[in-house]
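Supplementary Methods, section 5.1.

A reviewer requested that the exact input to the structure prediction be made available. We therefore reproduce it here, unchanged from the version used in the analyses.
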Amino acid sequence: MLLNYINWNIDPEIVGFWGLSIRYYGILFAASFFFGYIIMQKIFKKEGLTVELLDKLTVYMAIGTVLGARLGHCLFYEPEYYLSNPLEILKIWRGGLASHGAAIGILLSLYYFSKKNKKPYLWILDRIAIVVALAGFFIRMGNLMNSEIYGIETSLPWGFIFIRTGEVFPKHPTQIYEALSYLLIFVLLYFIYRKKGVQVKQGLIFGLFFALLFSVRFFIEFIKEAQVDFEQGMTLNMGQWLSIPFVLLGLVFLFRSLKQQPDIK
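The structure derived from this sequence is encoded token-by-token as follows.
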């Protein structure tokens, strides 16, 4: 007989010593860069590009992701607190990262990279979109291990009771919903690249990535609990309002790419 719910009581800390701790979230966040780097190595090798250029790109990506995600959380979700306590913004180890902020940070850092290294901006976005989708899978699994960003109450047999946060009723494991959706998006984007290679129309992969990923985020938000107090009673929460322009931007790039001829026939 199947259980009507799943008791989730995983300690987010794997091991602690000398006042430091190794947590599942940190390992999974690092894994997103590790596996992303391996995939980008294959892409760069296929296109005859150097590892040195990839290393530079990785640095830009890391800085854009972390800074964007942190500032996004502070300014989108708790601006009053962080603007009153600006030094708290630096305490990233206490948590608080926003995927929409990460998206903006990545877009800006990659634009600067493209200018600095004289590579087409859309070329970079198309390839980075593939590994960012995979990173989304790892990060949401990290949220699951932290027992955070979960959904509203559910009677479905796969509902999770997040014991460490004091929950007593099963909730939608929205972290898993998002993680699996992002993994499928990654598989789709990588399949398109492997199938078409350099012949893929510029902006197609990036447009698909934005349109699909943030559409998933928009709809899953309907069954998520409010992340901050001001979202209570909102028809659309902050995550949904922030997702709309990203979906529209993705559709613009997607439609523009479909009207173009491939770079190489």
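The longest strand covers residues 13-17. These observations are discussed further in the main text.
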